Amino acid sequence: MSDISSHGGSGGGPSGRIGIGLDLDATHLKILEVLRDNGRISVSSLAERVGISRANAYTRFEALRADGVIKRFTAEIDHVRTGLGITALIFVTVRQQMWRQFRAELARMPEVEYCAITTGQHDAMIQVRMADVAEVHAMVTDRLANIPAVKATETVFILDEVLKRPYVLPSDRDKTRPARRPVQEEQRGDVPLGKMRFVGAAEGRAALRKDD
Amino acid sequence: MSDISSHGGSGGGPSGRIGIGLDLDATHLKILEVLRDNGRISVSSLAERVGISRANAYTRFEALRADGVIKRFTAEIDHVRTGLGITALIFVTVRQQMWRQFRAELARMPEVEYCAITTGQHDAMIQVRMADVAEVHAMVTDRLANIPAVKATETVFILDEVLKRPYVLPSDRDKTRPARRPVQEEQRGDVPLGKMRFVGAAEGRAALRKDD
DNA sequence: GTTGAAATTAGTACGAA
DNA sequence: TTCGTACTAATTTCAAC
């Protein structure tokens, strides 16, 4: 059960994989679209829905799997039903040169569902699922605070998860947006830029993306 | 393709579902554990791995599905391979009384993978997948800024996704932690509490969790 | 890249423990 | 409830086109 992503970052940094084994065409994307909503569909039904032959579907399906485009299949579950109804985001400031230790400690925390290294005020964001707020508090004060690599934390609770897509595909963008495009074009320029803010990375963090 | 979660929040608020249709035993959790890593496993193999009969596995599997504990099955994909290698978090401050509009606009944005309402300095956090940073910038300035409900935004880029579990289960906690428990007990009290911070919700936001 | 037919496997229904 | 078995339907594999 190795949970640490073996792949490179999603930020276009030092990734690792250079040669692309497979370039995805519209059919590949269609397959991924179907698989997003029904990961247990049979390859036969998949072929039908996508509009290709079974053999072709099998070939493409296997290629997507073998090439790592599809990392794995999983079930989406209702956390409330399993008793982990509290979700929190913990923003962590990591002490320089201690990323390796931070990562190692993360691997020991099964209640962490997601951890990303970010630009901005903090260095990392972790998402945890707990039974109650007391457990979140205990996790932050007892476990995180005891990691020397952790300089500071900031915790925020999730009140509601409004939207959660399994994943986004490039083909998604051509669906809802065209209707709004003209509006965008017209309003371009009138945008009150002052109300938004981009937060860059702290000193030297980008260089520390991989372990230390 | 309705992406907005029909379920209640994950924060224990006004959920909707009251009567629990199914209380999960250790076997149920074991099933979910297997399904987390292999959502396409056959029910026969599942039965084998969990150590129950095939018939029983079918019954429990169906019960978990019908009861909504398993929301759906999906494929996990590599965003870099699909050309959406840039991930950003956008923290949004929403104008009071305009949550309904904000939610409606969100539904029109297919590149948004996740949106949660949070406590703390901001009101919501959305995660987007884009082809490049320019697209993120365009999304924030052209699309988000044009929503009257959006008072302000703060954008942060994800440099690396260190850990991404499909989901956390209550049974996970009894795996890695026991080894560290004694350490926790010893260090309890020596925790430098000053280095962490809990951020509460802004005025009246909890009451506005559902639309408006 | 497609179709069709054999082999295998999945899903269902039943009685017994 | 759970298990084991037998039955039916579907899927996967492999062949030739």
Automatic annotation (TrEMBL), chains A, B:
Keywords: DNA-binding, Transcription, Transcription regulation. The keyword Amino-acid biosynthesis does not apply. InterPro entries: ArsR-like_HTH (IPR011991), AsnC-type_HTH_dom (IPR000485), Dimeric_a/b-barrel (IPR011008), Tscrpt_reg_AsnC-like (IPR019888), Tscrpt_reg_AsnC/Lrp_C (IPR019887), WH-like_DNA-bd_sf (IPR036388), WH_DNA-bd_sf (IPR036390). Residues 24-85 form the HTH asnC-type domain. Residues 171-194 are annotated as: Disordered. Gene3D superfamilies: 3.30.70.920, Winged helix-like DNA-binding domain superfamily/Winged helix DNA-binding domain (1.10.10.10). Residues 171-189 have a biased composition (Basic and acidic residues). It holds the Pfam family AsnC_trans_reg. This is Lrp/AsnC family transcriptional regulator.
